[in-house]
C-alpha cells in the first residue's frame, strides 16, 4: 500500500478526489497526512476523512530554505512513499526537492511543456490556444519542467473564461493524478532518479 502525503494551499478539490479514491479498498494507496503552507480551507477534507494534517506557515520563516527545512521535518515522520503537490502554490526549495525526488509529483492545469507556471489557464486563453490540457509530472528544480508522467488534451471552447476552462480541466487532472498514483503503487510507472 503506497503511503501518500499531499500538500495543498487552497480548497483542496484534487485532494478530496484523491481521498475518495483512496477510500476504495481496491485502490493501492492511502493518504497518511495532508500538509499546507497556510491555513488552507482544503484541510477540512483531511478532517472529514480522518486523515491527520499539519500546517507549515510560510510567513513564519525568514527564508524559503528555512520554510523548506521545516516542511521536510513535518513530512518525514509520515514516511511517505510519494509526496503529491496538489495545488501547493509555492515553489519548493532545492533542498526539499533533493530530499523527496523522484518520489515527488505535481498536478498542472495545462498540457506540459505548454503553459508552465502559476497562471496556466489564463495563459492558454491569452495565447488563443485551441486546446490546453492537464498534466502530472515528477518535480524537478524547474517550474513545471519535470518529466511528464501523464497528460491529456482539453479543448478550449468558444466563450471560455478562465473559470469555465479550469472547471473542465479539473476532472481530467484528478483522473490523471489517481492514475499516476495507482501506476506508481503497482510499478506500472517508474519514477527515476535524475542523472
From TrEMBL:
Coiled coil segments of this chain: none
Instruction: Enumerate the residues binding N(1)-(5-phospho-beta-D-ribosyl)glycinamide.
Output: 12-14
Record-listed (6R)-10-formyltetrahydrofolate binding positions: 64, 89-92, 106
Q: Which range is the signal sequence, renumbered to this chain?
A: none
Q: Which UniProt keywords apply?
A: Purine biosynthesis, Transferase
* Swiss-Prot/TrEMBL catalytic activity: N(1)-(5-phospho-beta-D-ribosyl)glycinamide + (6R)-10-formyltetrahydrofolate = N(2)-formyl-N(1)-(5-phospho-beta-D-ribosyl)glycinamide + (6S)-5,6,7,8-tetrahydrofolate + H(+)
Q: What is the E.C. number? A: 2.1.2.2
Name the InterPro entries for this protein.
Formyl_transf_N, Formyl_transf_N_sf, GART
Q: In which pathway does it act?
A: Purine metabolism; IMP biosynthesis via de novo pathway; N(2)-formyl-N(1)-(5-phospho-D-ribosyl)glycinamide from N(1)-(5-phospho-D-ribosyl)glycinamide (10-formyl THF route): step 1/1
Site described as Raises pKa of active site His, located at 144
* Active site as annotated: 108 (proton donor)
* Protein role: Catalyzes the transfer of a formyl group from 10-formyltetrahydrofolate to 5-phospho-ribosyl-glycinamide (GAR), producing 5-phospho-ribosyl-N-formylglycinamide (FGAR) and tetrahydrofolate.
PANTHER family tied to this protein: PHOSPHORIBOSYLGLYCINAMIDE FORMYLTRANSFERASE
Tell me which HAMAP family the record gives.
PurN
User: What is the protein name for this chain?
Assistant: Phosphoribosylglycinamide formyltransferase
Amino acid at each position: 500500500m503506497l503511503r501518500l502525503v499531499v500538500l495543498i494551499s487552497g480548497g483542496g478539490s484534487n485532494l478530496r478526489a484523491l481521498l475518495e479514491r483512496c477510500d476504495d479498498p481496491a485502490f493501492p494507496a492511502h493518504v497518511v497526512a495532508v500538509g499546507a503552507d497556510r491555513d488552507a480551507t482544503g484541510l477540512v477534507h483531511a478532517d472529514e476523512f480522518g486523515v491527520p494534517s499539519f500546517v507549515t506557515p510560510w510567513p513564519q520563516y525568514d527564508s524559503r530554505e528555512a520554510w523548506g527545512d521545516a516542511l521536510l521535518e513535518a513530512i518525514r515522520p509520515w514516511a511517505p512513499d510519494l509526496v503529491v503537490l496538489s495545488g501547493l502554490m509555492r515553489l519548493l526549495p532545492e533542498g526539499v526537492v533533493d530530499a523527496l525526488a523522484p518520489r515527488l509529483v505535481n498536478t498542472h492545469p495545462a498540457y506540459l511543456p505548454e503553459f508552465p507556471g502559476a497562471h496556466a489557464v489564463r495563459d492558454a486563453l491569452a495565447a488563443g490556444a485551441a486546446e490546453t490540457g492537464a498534466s502530472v509530472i515528477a518535480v524537478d528544480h524547474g517550474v513545471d519542467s519535470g518529466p511528464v508522467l501523464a497528460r491529456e488534451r482539453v479543448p478550449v471552447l468558444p466563450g471560455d473564461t478562465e473559470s469555465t476552462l479550469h472547471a473542465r480541466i479539473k476532472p481530467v487532472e484528478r483522473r490523471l493524478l489517481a492514475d499516476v498514483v495507482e501506476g506508481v503503487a503497482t510499478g506500472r510507472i517508474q519514477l527515476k532518479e535524475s542523472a
